[in-house]
Design goal:
Blueprint lengths: L1 E5 L3 H6 L5 E4 L7 E7 L8 H4 L2 H12 L13 E12 L12 E16 L8 E2 L9
Parallel strand pairs: 1-3
Antiparallel strand pairs: 1-6, 2-5, 3-4, 4-5
Length: 136
């Protein structure tokens, strides 16, 4: 199964279904389900200060209701779930879209009950594990 490395908190936002666009400088060479691997890079301490107001409010609301972990509780160096990549564009109206980048359309998010510990060294889509190892 293909795997994409993403920094936190964006990785958790993807697999929780809160983030519907993944911004990349390159077009996806694959459509379908991909595993989301969290890199070991920690979330910046001022992440919330630099986040768009509407996005930050959505995250805080989800945290208040227990639907999204606090930043210090986010997983690192693990595969935490999967999403489906359904193409890309450069003109999405999503609050997550960044201009001039490839905006990957994300759907069908799923968070694993237990993360799969793994270390990847690239942000490109890679083959990590076979599909029969994934239940969900």
């Amino acid at each position: 199964m293909k795997t994409l490395s993403v920094r936190q908190p964006w990785a958790s936002l993807l697999v929780s279904g809160l983030k519907d666009i993944e911004n990349r400088t390159w077009a996806p060479n694959y459509k379908g389900r991909i595993l989301i691997h969290v890199s070991s890079t920690k979330a910046p301490k001022n992440f919330a200060d630099r986040t768009i107001f509407n996005v930050n409010n959505e995250i805080e609301n989800e945290q208040m209701f227990g639907n999204f972990p606090e930043y210090e509780d986010l997983e690192y160096s693990a595969i935490i779930g999967y999403v489906t990549v359904n193409g890309d564009c450069d003109d999405s109206t999503s609050v997550w879209a960044v201009p001039v980048k490839h905006q990957w359309h994300i759907e069908d998010a799923y968070i694993f009950d237990e993360p799969i510990r793994a270390i990847l060294y690239s942000s490109s889509i890679q083959r990590a594990i076979s599909p029969h190892q994934i239940v969900g």
